[in-house]
Amino acid sequence: MARIRPDASDAELIQSLRAGQQQALGILYDRYGGLVYTVAMKILNQPDEAEDLTQEVFLTFWKQDKFDPSRAALSTYLCLLTRSRAINKIHSRASRQRSVERLQQTAPAEFSAPTPLEQASLEEQQQTVRHAMTQLSDNQRQILEMSYFRGMTQAEIAQQLRMPLGTVKTNARQGLIKLRQLLGEAIG
């Protein structure tokens, strides 16, 4: 495979990327990552979310073959994609906030204690999940525990584990896929 020139045009890089040369994505990221991050940061106003969104935008661009370089500039496409995803995140954030507020307004008396049968079922489910977690790799298990039990963002996990953010995201995704398979087998 020929080495890709860093000064290649966007169209050439996209063509190389579609031909399976992943190093083209790195060049495009170097070229447009700052722009995407800036747009995300202006809308989200949270550095961790802007970093996560920047990664997500480039991952989406890489996996989806929707961009046509003859129709628009890549920078325009990436800005529009970033803006759209950032607005979706804001709407999602607002929706979660409303849900939390509704839950906080609900009187605790409305929640009844679980019946012995419900309690036994819950304990059995917890044990099944704990067993499935032991079948993950150490990195996958640690990252999922930090994310779901400690409520840490993927950027915080990457920083604490001194690991690239992309590696954290990959381990989290692979761990969730494996858990889904394991738990599907345990239930089915």
Structure write-up:
The model has no long low-confidence stretch (mean pLDDT 85). The protein has 8 helices and no strands. It is globular and about 65 Å long. With 188 residues, it is mainly alpha-helical. The termini are far apart. Helix content is 75%, strand content 0%.
Biggest sheet, open or closed, and with what strands and sense? Answer: none
Anisotropy-based shape: globular
Give the beta-strand count: 0
User: What fraction, in percent, of the residue positions are helical?
Assistant: over 70%
Which segments are poorly predicted (pLDDT under 50) over 5 or more consecutive residues? none
Secondary-structure element order, N to C = HHHHHHHH
Judged by helices, strands and strand pairing, the structural class is mainly alpha
User: Terminal Cα separation, in Å?
Assistant: 45 Å
In percent terms, what proportion of residues is strand?
Answer: under 5%
Using only C-alpha atoms, the radius of gyration works out to 21 Å
Could you tell me the mean pLDDT? Answer: 85
- Counted by DSSP, the helix tally is 8
